[in-house]
Design a protein that fits this description.
The structure holds two protein chains of two kinds.
Chain A (H helix, E strand, L loop, with lengths): L1 H13 L1 H15 L15 E9 L1 H11 L3 E3 L2 H4 L5 E9 H9 L4 E6 L2 E6 H7 L7 E10 L10 E4 L5 E3 L5 E7 L4 E5 L6 E4 L8 E3 L3 H4 L2 E4 L2 E4 L7 E4 L3 H6 L3 H5 L6 E5 L8 E5 L12 E4 L2 E2 L24 E7 L2 H4 L10 E6 L5 E16 L8 H13 L15 H8 L11 H5 L3 E13 L3 E13 L6 E14 L4 E15 L23 E2 L4 E2 L9 H6 L1 E20 L2 E20 L11 E23 L3 E24 L14 E25 L3 E12 L8 E12 L12 E15 L10 E7 L2 E8 L8 E14 L4 E13 L2 E5 L8 E5 L2 E16 L3 E18 L5 E3 L2 E3 L7 E5 L1 E4 L6 E4 L7 E2 L7 E5 L5 E11 L2 E11 L2 E3 L3 H4 L44 E3 L2 E12 L2 H7 L3 E15 L17 H6 L11 E11 L1
Parallel strand pairs in A: 2-5, 6-12, 18-21
Antiparallel strand pairs in A: 1-3, 4-5, 6-9, 7-8, 7-10, 10-11, 13-14, 15-20, 16-17, 18-19, 20-21, 22-23, 22-58, 23-24, 24-25, 25-26, 26-29, 27-28, 29-30, 30-31, 31-32, 32-33, 33-34, 34-35, 35-36, 36-39, 37-38, 39-40, 40-43, 41-42, 43-44, 44-52, 45-46, 46-47, 47-51, 48-49, 49-50, 52-53, 53-56, 54-55, ...
Chain B lengths: L1 H17 L11 E3 H4 L3 H15 L8 H10 L4 E3 L4 H7 L8 H22 L6 H26 L12 E4 L16 E3 H18 L10 H14 L3 H14 L21 E5 L9 H6 L10 E3 L16 E2 L15 E3 L9 E3 L9 E5 H14 L9 H11 L11 H12 L5 H7 L20 H6 L11
Parallel strand pairs in B: 7-8
Antiparallel strand pairs in B: 2-6, 3-4, 5-10, 8-9
Helix pairs in contact in B: 3-6, 3-7, 4-15, 6-7, 7-8, 7-9, 8-9, 9-10, 10-12, 12-13, 12-14
Classes of the chains: A mainly beta, B mainly alpha.
Amino acid sequence: MKKNASHWSTRLKICSKFLITMKLIFFIVLLDFGVSFASVYSQNQKISLQLENSSLQGMIEQIQAQSNYNFLYSNADIEGIDGLNHSFSNTSVKEILEVCLEGTDLDYTLRDRVIVLKTAEEEKEKQPATPPDERTITGKVISGKNGKPIPGVNILLKGTNQGTVTDMSGRYNLEVPEEGGTLVFSAVGYQKVEVKIKDQKTINVTLKVDEVAMEEVVVVGYGTQRKRDVTGSMSEVEVKEEATVSSPSFEEALQGSVPGVNVQKSSGKLGGAIMMKIRGSSSVSADNQPLYVVDGMPITSQSYSTGGNAPTNPLADLNYNAIESIQVLKDAAATAIYGSRASNGVVLITTKGGKAGETQYNASMTMGTNTPSQLRDWCNADQYMTMINESLNNVVDPETGLYDGWKTPEALKDLYIPGWRNDNNVNWQQQALRQGMVKKFNFSASGGNKKNTFYAGLTYNDQTGIIMGNDLEKISGRLNLDHQASDNIKFGLSTNFTRTQQNRVTSDNTWANPMMLVAIPPVQPVKNPETDKLNTNTVYYNSLISIRDGRNKRKSYRAILNGYMDIQIVKNLSFRSEVGTDIMNQFEKTYWGRQTNWGQPAGEGMDREVGVRNYNTNNYFTYDWSNDIHRLKATLGMSYQEKQTEGSRLEAKGFPSDAFKNLSNASEVTSFGEWGYGNSFLSYYARSNYQYKGKYLLSLSGRIDGSSRFGENSKYGFFPAGSLGWIISEENFMQNIEAISYLKLRTSYGITGNAGIGNYESYGLYDGTTYVGNPALIPAQLKSPNLKWETTSQFNVGLDYGFADDRISGSIDYYYKHTTDLLLNRSLPATSGFGAVTKNVGSLKNYGLEFAITTHNLKGQFSWITDFNISANRNEILDIAGPEISYGSNYVIEGEDIGVFKLVEYAGVHPMTGDALFYKNDGSGMTTDDYNEANRVVAGSPNPEFTGGLNNRFEYKNFDLSILTNFVYGNDVYLSAGRYQSANFEWWDNQTTDQLDRWQEPGDVTDVPEPRFGQANGSQHSTRYLHEGSYLRIKQLTLGYNLPESVLKNLRISSARIFVSASNLYTFTNYPGYDPEVSSLPAGGSSQAYNVMMGVDFYTAPQIRSYKIGLDVNF
Amino acid sequence: MIKRNIILVVFFLLVSVACDDQLDVQPQQSIESDKALSNPENVISTLRGAYQSARSRWLFGSQFNEYSELLASSGDLMFVGSHKEPQQFMAKEINVTNSYVENTWDVGYETINILNTVKSAIDVLDDSEQDRVLGEVLFLRGWLYFNMVRLWGLPYEPGQTNDQPGVPLVLDATLSSEDAIEVERASVHQCYEQIISDLKQARDLLPAQNGVYANTYAASAILSRVYLQQSKFELAATEANRVIEEGGFSLVNTPHNEYNNESNTSEDIFAFQNSLTDNTIWLTQRYASLNGMGRGDYQMSEDFFSLFNSGDLRGQIQQETYDSYTYEDIDRMYYIGVGPIRSGGINTYKYGNYYAVIPSIRLAEMYLTRAEANHQISSQVGPNTPTQDINTVRSRASAEPLPASVTTKQIRNERYRELCWEGFRLHDLKRWKKDIAGYSYDAGNLILPIPAAELEVNDKLEQNPYYK
């Protein structure tokens, strides 16, 4: 008997497949699916089987692959049973077993879906000569975590091999001998429980979650790691099903939820670029965005949109619903294995796979509205006329009555703003903005059996934006397949296809951007009253014409495919090969009708096509060995990535009518082009993690990275990192401290690189062009043969903690990043004929603190969980080996943080003259009314001092409520458009109503100078337009209701949730513009321009506020 | 089992090794600088690149013209656009960060570097081509420096030392970043010396015919402009006379026909070329207000037309215009604008189509220069009297001839009537020492600031006093 008991426990360990099933089932429960399958298993399921010289093992595998049956057996028992030659068609499993087991000493029993194979001796041993009286115990096993039933719990009568497993509703029944005994309840991820039967008939058990045994595994670069063993700084983003249903994109879900990560949407335009900064800006000229890796493949994340428009966001092609987990790698210990592209952090995205078991379906739909997060107050017709007249009267020559010796104010108004004499009062803001809508449908199915699992999903997402002419439609499909070919070989494929179709508006800095409609005076009608067609005689271009007669489409077809093969070569040593491609084909079609500002006289169109092909392969060995004291996990591998971009463009004009928009209808080609470029990376890496006694951790990694982008003298770089960890709570002296449940101290140091520059910046180049139809050449770039990566060394120290049984948990990190050899676009004297050359000069640093805490404030029927995180990053430019770098008012200055605003300081209005005053800032403390006399000073910064988020989640019975807020504190925003729209009626532009508070007569104390038509009185670049950008935003508020089980049973579905949610519900801010989350990205800008030009608002669309209602069903 | 594993592992490793050695990814639409100047074809192509660069909006393509007309304007030209930069020129109050000024500086020196680069590779060319190419290089370089020194330096003062700062003279190519050195401003005197030296050489090296590229007469014509600016009248008259008498150019029959042509006319001594697929649009954008062409930023005041007699074809306004009108429908030199924005003003016909060539050096100018120069020193270089030369230009415009012995004022007015909006006005007013919009001709705000960005990279540069 004794022998058999130990036998059983060994069996449970070695039957890995069984464990996997248990894990998967456990997973389902964890995901709160609350599934209760109808427990109607066909005891007589019929299958077909071909056995040719097969082993019994082979037979078992085939049956498992084809049916729902699981086997329990000891390897020793079935070893050596082979040579099976049978052919079954449509035969019941029972029958097959009987045939195949004939002549062996094996017997089988079948309960529910579990087939137990035992030797006849065991049977005999077990069965006493006379069968004892038996009785039946029933009961239910629930989880201590959420009170939900646990399927697949193994229940064993201690000391025997009598046992069973719980069904999908956690129920079991087991026949036990009359004399009773002890039942052992065990399940993966839970602590084992033993219960004495005594005379009980019903035994209900609650299993406690076993945190240690769970061995929670996290995804790291080239492999996985046990969470406990992690010594680097990384944050896992919880991907909640409810969030994937209601949130449009995963990047937005990251906002405010990960310490050290600052995500900013540039505007409320759909499909616009997203800026993500992990631990600040580590570069001035090179890319500052993290590396995005999906299922091992570094994907294309840059915009390939036409240089004439603001960048787009290729990450939007990823389907949030299909994402399983997101891992943000922050310090060198975590990122250095990505070598020369790791300085800005790495975002690892893993997509969903299937889980063995009955096919699970999920369907969700969300509908809602999009509205601008904020509107502004603009002058109405009366206010406008009063002010423009005042402004004109202030400057006309009192003698001649003429403006600038030219025309009378009346004549000027007739010339510029015809329509002013009629009673028009147009709110042009309402012409630019609208209420949009959002629709999202998602359907997925996943499941499989032991050998094959799959996940298939389809998502349709349709949104109309808040700006006229802006919408986005996306269809995305995913199919992930995994196949366990044998115990040693597993392979699979994940595929993602996306079609994104976007109607775009032009970049902020063009008159065709609808946001610029606000400049048109309210006295000018939208439509010409005579023709009832759109008014073509407005003082500024009426861009509604572009929306009516033009098109500005972007379509992108994206396929991300990743295949892998895992080979367990020998025990402890495995090999994994991954091959991936990311192919993006993008088509842009624009057409400007004959009445638009660009399309006259006969229409102008452009077709542009870009293909980005990105190939990657990773091949690595993993060695995993452990005993009671030591554990070693080592990785050694290589990867190669190659990216090719090809594009072409054709512009033509002269269309028969605006009904013809295809270029084949054009009469003349006006411009064309073709381009191609590429880059490659070849890398070798190694890593080892060593753990001693479960509490001392050491990790070392290194990568040798070569890139085509680097100069011929420095093709390869080396990027090492090392880290240490100490799980203090495992120490003996900590065991008595009840309050502390987990404490880990970790520190790391390492070197990473940044290769985010153009593909050929080390070359001296001549560009081809033409003059009079003949080929021409122009020197374009000076040679830089020593060009290499930027080098960032990063030190990190952090503490992970858990108190009071992990009711309070979190982490705190301090880091210091020092970047040298900046890939700097170094300015040259323009007299040399070149503006700049890219050189490895200069340095900067970032350092900061990150703090995250999760508290389970209330548990039980009413539960309340709070997540809070806050981070502070400080950036300082140490050396740029040259003059200040500037884009507009944003500067890069030594000793300051990147992108600071350097501006003349506005000093208000002279109370006696109405002149705008500026501080001279020459040390005198004086003010001046001469703008040129004032010196510019560093007046603000677009970099926040603190960012973070606070998420509260409440659950009561079937209701859940979550409130996610995020905040940004201490940054400034330059409202550059204020120079036109809040410029005390200096020109015809309609003004914000705050301009009514202008200076009128001596003695007036105000901030708005006297309106003087045609004269810059305070409208120059100055701190007058610099504002605090801090905000606290109710980012997401969701109220959900889970349909009760009673209803679900009747509907035969496992769970259903109805929710209402609001995004960007309210923003607390002092910013006077539309929205403080803003970045007017320069059209076709360099990465340096994007890095430096932060926090500028120039006719930028407000963010979107949306209200949604949705339904999410699992069945 | 183990065997199969090993086969697979070896297979994948072999595949991954096979994609090794791929770090050499060559550019596709550019060529490497080492190769660029290695053969005659590429050197010639680079010379064409210099023409293209010189035609840029920031130089001869528009801004040289605009700066002159805007700074000179005192009522005749109105700026009704929205851009802040031209507004500053109109107000004679230019910011040191004015981006137009910076671009003109940058592109100006970019072009000079292309020219210097071609010059550095002159030996790569066949002997037969060397003279012509060098001539073109020096012609463009001299002309560029002439425009730049007039914009950034205080006026050339005849008979003075002219040691006021001009512009940095860069005469050698930047072939590596080590060549990108800081250069200080040369004096106005030194600049003119260099300009004259370049142009004289160009005149002597260039052939009489050279397609749409510079010929010897173009060099003479610019040389006459330079001398006229210096009030070296005899030399100016001599060079102008050479063009008129030897060049074989002739005035087109009406002023109207000189503009918006797809190729050079008999009157064009040199014109920058535009075509459908390759063009500079800004002269048209600014000055025109037509269907599909122009945004009507620059309009003429009615007062301006008092300068013309009624019969003068150069001063007539087409009142009746329609939205559909393009330059082909305009038959006068001025018209009421019909563009989508800022329509209804008076616009010039001179730049009605941005696919047309830009007449940059016209024969009419040579007549006016010869007349003025001869008149100033009472000489008669060439066969005509000043009056005859003036009347040659007038009669082509159907303006009644002036009586004998024209006055200085008449000559100057004629020059304005003929060459208005072609970038001459500021420089003419300066050499005539005329006040401009209430400012003295040598006022510090009538020249441009050295761009602030450039001062930051080059410690040797000194800002113009007005902008300090």
